[in-house]
Specification:
The complex is a heterodimer of chains A (about 120) and B (about 110). Chain A has about 120 residues and is an all-beta fold. In chain A, β7 and β8 form a beta hairpin. Chain A is about 0% helix and about 55% strand. By secondary structure, chain B is an all-beta fold. Chain B has no helices and eleven strands. In chain B, the strands form two sheets. In chain B, strands 2, 4, 5, 9, 10 and 11 form a six-stranded mixed sheet that branches. In chain B, strands 1-3-8-7-6 form a five-stranded antiparallel sheet, with no helix packed on it. In chain B, β9 and β10 form a beta hairpin. Chain B is globular, with a radius of gyration of 13 Å. Chain B starts with a strand and ends with a strand. Classes of the chains: A mainly beta (about 120), B mainly beta (about 110). At the A-B interface, β5 and β9 of A face β4 and β5 of B.
């Protein structure tokens, strides 16, 4: 149980276009989902926290107009990178916290590799 | 402020040798501490966690970690390394609002 999927697993897009990444909790309801960004050979940096039905909370330095997060249901959150540029190329990982979970419990998706050309 | 420091960005051991990955933390509240493993181009897999209770925590794949409050440490160990243990390992702290990750330690296992 507690499986989180991400789609696509990798995507290549041209500079200036937008790309959407989906994060789904497959066998549980997630009231909270987290989006992380990981640069090569570096740690995960939290970008934003999304709660179902409300606006996402972005970490300092993360442009909310560039990284649009929508947590439309208890099993789906999406991250849209708008007007992507090469510097947005990264590994994006989501995690999901089950509805009745403890405050520390979260399950990670497999990640999405974004390359902007 | 909360922080996690992993000592050593790279650790190399021989197959069968002891694995020791170091993690120190700083937290103003009782921390929840975690170790995750990441294989190339994959997400994170939870190895073990400390929340409350017993300070020696056993996880998957033969790993264990000991929470030492006096030393603010949560080092990860495994008695005998396998080739399959080669990966990136992250120590993380959760103070209730968000998870803070260490910089990661890449473990190399030599045959």
């Amino acid at each position: 149980g507690a499986v989180v999927s991400q789609h696509p697993s990798w995507v290549i897009c041209k500079s200036g276009t937008s790309v959407k990444i989906e994060c789904r909790s497959l066998d549980f309801q997630a009231t909270t989902m987290f989006w992380y960004r990981q640069f090569p050979k570096q740690s995960l940096m939290l970008m934003a926290t999304s709660n179902e039905g409300s606006k996402a909370t972005y970490e300092q330095g993360v442009e909310k107009d560039k990284f649009l997060i929508n947590h439309a249901s208890l099993t789906l959150s999406t991250l849209t990178v708008t007007s992507a540029h090469p510097e947005d190329s990264s590994f994006y990982i989501c995690s999901a916290r089950p509805r009745l979970a403890g405050p520390y419990e979260q399950y990670f998706g497999p990640g999405t590799r974004l390359t902007v050309t | 402020a909360q922080s996690v420091t992993q000592l050593g960005s790279h650790v190399s051991v021989s197959e069968g040798a002891l694995v020791l990955l170091r993690c120190n933390y700083s937290s103003s509240v009782p921390p929840y501490l975690f170790w995750y493993v990441q294989y190339p181009n994959q997400g994170l897999q939870l190895l073990l966690k400390y929340t409350t209770g017993a300070t020696l925590v056993k996880g998957i794949n033969g790993f264990e970690a000991e929470f030492k409050k006096s030393e603010t440490s949560f080092h990860l160990t495994k008695p005998s390394a396998h080739m399959s243990d080669a990966a990136e390992y992250f120590c993380a702290l959760d103070g209730g609002f968000k998870t803070i990750f260490g910089a990661g330690t890449r473990l190399f296992v030599k045959a």
